[in-house]
Amino acid sequence: MRTDQPAQVWAGVDVGTQSLRVVLVDDTGRVAGRGAGSLTSHRTGAVHEQDPAQWWAVLGSAFRQALKDVDPRAVLGVAICGTSGTFLLADASDGVPRTPALMYDDARASAEAPDVTAALGYATQPSWALPKLVHLLRTGPAPLRADLESGRVRLVHCPDHLAERLVGGPVATDWSHALKTGYDLDGLDWPTEALGRLGLPQAVLPAVVRPGTPLGTVSASGADHTGLPAGIPVLAGMSDGCAAQIAAGALAPGSWNSVLGTTLVLKGVTATRIVDPANVIYSHRHPDGGWLPGGASSVGAGILERRFPSVDRDALDRAAARYEPSGGIAYPLLGRGERFPFVAPDAEGFELGTPVDEADRYAAVLQGVAFVERLAYATLRHLGADVDGPLSVTGGAVRSRYWTQLRADILGRPIRLPANPEPAFGMAVLAAAGDGRLYATSQRFVRIAETVEPRSGAAERFADAYGGFVDELAARGHLDPGLARYAKEQP
Length: 491
Hints:
Elements: E1 9-15, E2 19-26, E3 31-38, E4 42-44, E5 47-50, H1 52-66, E6 75-82, E7 87-91, E8 101-102, H2 113-120, H3 129-139, H4 142-150, E9 153-157, H5 158-167, E10 173-174, H6 192-197, E11 208-209, E12 214-217, H7 220-226, E13 233-235, H8 240-247, E14 256-260, E15 264-268, E16 282-285, E17 291-296, H9 302-307, H10 313-320, E18 328-331, E19 350-353, H11 358-382, E20 391-394, H12 401-411, E21 415-418, H13 423-433, H14 438-445, E22 448-452, H15 458-475, H16 481-489
Parallel strand pairs: 1-6, 6-13, 10-11, 14-20, 20-21
Antiparallel strand pairs: 1-2, 2-3, 4-5, 5-8, 7-9, 12-13, 14-15, 15-17, 16-17, 18-19, 21-22
Helix pairs in contact: 1-5, 3-4, 8-13, 10-11, 11-12, 11-16, 13-14, 15-16
């Protein structure tokens, strides 16, 4: 054990699709310990499931890795995030899972989503938790349907399941994970009338609390499994996108964080809730007050492995730098349909023009993702959002220095690279804040490693290509002509 032990640390847990991660962070923002383990899942068509028992097993081993060089007595609290919309059904009496976990992108509820949308009065998607819950009520095995109708089973979000096992009993959920289960963030209550129209008893759904609220303390069995000391608080977390936003320090009005991983996700802060008639934007509630609006596109870095497999990306980055702008214009969708900055279930990717070689084609893809990012910010501004604060970028794509520079150039804005951008770090910050001031705590913990400035004249170099990209989306009926004009006028 090291002699420079921190006096106090907080633990953050991130349950992703392929791994579970734990970080321990001290009160200066230094990462004192890390642990992780792999997760597997099963996909069959629209169905995507995971075994909750695997979460618990990996949580134990990841905590023991993280605590290897840290005195467990220094840990003062734990908060957990998971993928938004991932849940399971558990026995109401003992919490034992009755179903596998239905994952965040499980789309089995395509038939139920329109009914849920009609009941709630706003657009939902098949991957949201509430449509999937209605799907189980209507099409699940007869015993499960009967138990749903009677309230003998209850919905448990991914982080809630782990929190329950840590504390040894049922816990409330947080209003962030509850969003896609239909929780009313304005009234801070479940929509009883809408649930009734869907045939769901409210007893199936958990109590909801503010993120950072204490849920209980680590039990003796939780301590035995993880190596954590019994008695430390387990606090309500937030969904993984909000956790990454916390880790980036993007918590003041006007600030935004862009996560470019497999897909592109933008999240920011507004004082008032964005009114979006097209329901492109959905908003989480800010623990400090105000709102955390955002949206998730279906473009992202995931397209690179598909279109340019087994290549030297660094070499392609260097080659792509010769094509600014590219001879082609690309809209590099991962699949059919778009969610943000516009909703178009029938949208398809396209390539215009004739790139001269593979490097030029690669450049068009990088630029195309950046064009979507710029259009997203224009859309947010058009809806009345303040986007003039600092912009942060996180996600796996920041490993490409060239792509990061390109994004700053096309946005025409400086972009900040946080030192510890992972969602687990964000959960450690939330655990430290508790139910107090999250923004103020983040200012103590979050460090910016670097700020990437746009190169002089770069925005002008890409102006025509960006305009052509926007015009093509409008010509295909995806963008309102007024929004298209506005997007091209924005600096």
